[in-house]
Design goal:
Order of helices and strands: HHHEHEHHEHEHEHEE
Strand order of the largest sheet: 3-2-1-4-5-7-6
Shape: globular
Strand content: 15-25%
Oligomer: single chain
CATH architecture of the largest domain: 3-Layer(aba) Sandwich
Number of helices: 9
CATH class of the largest domain: Alpha Beta
Radius of gyration: 19 Å
Largest sheet: 7 strands, mixed
Length: about 230
């Protein structure tokens, strides 16, 4: 019996003694048992770089909500959730037909079991429903529309960002996000991509930096964000 199996057995025994029942985690949460510390370390470091910078956190490409939980918790742990929120943009389904056409290697079934209901349920379970807000739709349209509506409601100052995290795995949504959000990132803020294997996110980031005259910075550690822009 390996260490993990032994630990599970002990947890089951303790719960049984207290009259409780052990439930296996949802299949989509299996990673929580084996998640690499390097991932958490990279996210903590990324947040630490912008912790003293004002503004919200925006993630483009939420997936099953892992980063929403981590970043939402960090806002809460540092007591910054009273004046900063996490905004997540995604279809919460599969990649769009345009994404699949533009980006070789993307799977049409990769997120077939995902849904906004599943993600919101996870957020509720972590007590983050007042910190994390999700915008459903094709990022090509939903992001610009949200920014326009937000500016109309709040006079143009409601979505200044300290951190933009791009995790779309596709070119056009990444490029649209860079063009729409760069001016809203405050000085000292960061725009980072998640894509370790070079693809659509990389192409969009490199093109944008060439057009805007931005400097690309590499992550410092193993499994760190592969590249990011530090807004000056």
């Amino acid at each position: 019996m390996n260490v993990l199996s032994s630990l599970k057995a002990k947890v089951k025994t303790l719960l049984k003694l207290h009259g409780d029942t052990y439930h296996e985690p949802d299949a989509r949460d299996k990673y929580l048992e084996t998640i690499e510390l390097s991932y958490l370390y990279s996210m903590f470091n990324l947040f630490n770089r912008v912790q003293k910078v004002p503004g919200h956190i925006v993630e483009v490409g939420v997936g099953a909500g892992r980063n929403a939980i981590v970043l939402g918790k960090l806002l809460k742990f540092t007591s910054q959730h009273s004046n900063a929120k996490y905004f997540g943009f995604d279809t919460f389904e599969s990649y769009t037909k345009l994404d699949l056409k533009e980006n070789d290697g993307l799977s049409s079934t990769r997120w077939k079991d995902n849904s906004i209901e599943f993600v919101k349920n996870r957020i509720d379970n972590h007590g983050l429903n007042k910190i994390c807000e999700f915008i459903v739709g094709d990022i090509r349209r939903s992001l610009p529309e949200f920014i326009k509506e937000s500016h109309a409601r709040h006079g143009g100052d409601s979505l200044y960002c300290r951190l933009v995290y791009i995790d779309t795995s596709s070119y056009t949504p990444s490029k649209v996000s860079l063009e729409a959000l760069y001016e809203l990132v405050v000085p000292g803020g960061i725009i980072a991509i998640d894509q370790r294997k070079q693809g659509g996110e990389w192409k969009a980031l490199v093109e944008f930096c060439e057009e805007a005259g931005c400097k690309l910075v590499a992550g410092d550690n193993y499994n760190d964000v592969p590249a990011y822009i530090l807004k000056e």
